[in-house]
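Researcher: Please predict.
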Amino acid sequence: MRQAFKIFLMALFGMALLSSCVKEDLSNCLPQREVHTLKLTFVPRNVSITPTQADLKMAVVYIFDKAGNLFRTWTKQNPVLNTPYDTGIILGEDTYRLVGWINPDSPYTITPAYTPTPEQAPATRAAMDEARVTLNIPADRNITGDIPMLFYGSTDQVIAPTQDVNIEIPLTLDTYRIRVTIKGLPQDGSTYRLQISDTNGAYDFNNNFVETPGFNYLNSATAGSGGGTGDLVLSVNTLRLDKGRSPQISIVNTTTGRTVFPQNGQPSINLMDLIGQTGVDVGTTHQINIEVPAPPTPPTDGTNTTIVVNINGWNVVIEGYNINPYE
């Protein structure tokens, strides 16, 4: 009788477990395979600008299954690079793709939305092909403040039996610092505006460009007013530069309305065409330092004129310019 009672209790226990394993929802079923707790480390690779801890506001990791559907998300406020984190996420033996972003919140929008805790399943089983990070661009299409550093990383992982799930996400930097020095400007109190125009405002979860309508990164500064000449520095943060793209750069004296650069009668010039004449690799160099000469005073007739632009120590000679921005 006692043995029969034990068998009866075991049967009841098994039925209770199975009752939570309903059709269409297997989240509470007994695991059929080995499971592992995911540990993550963010490791920067080929990042030429070292972020401060204040630059790292929030990390978001999206975990997709082998079918490319969202499985879980995980967030970390003020993440520290090269530091392992126990996410609390349980992974069974399978193939996963992990995509990590650092600072994808304001002024960016990330879709699909991430969940507040790793235990909570996403609201939608969104496909990775649909996921995006997009810069929020004002109605006037002008970005006037510095955008924060944006990092991206991804890795494919096959979780095997007895494997410790300590995964590194290699990070690359998706933002650039463009710093322009105008040499020998008249110190007459004029205000100058640096403008870089692009269509690089969105990325998929493979870090490919998703084209957006054109917009402008802007920064202004005012020259001194003590007479003589001096240098003026303007800088902006932009999203990714890449070969084959056509970001346009220009500098305008907004006090007079005259173009200071490119000085060839055109409103702008392709920044990547200039960088392409140097040994600068934008895949690993995230700060671009440019020195441009001030327009000549008095203006010249521009016949067969050349100017020299220095980019990260490389001289780029541009011939045939019609330098007469005073007309």
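Model: The chain has two domains: 32-173, 175-321.
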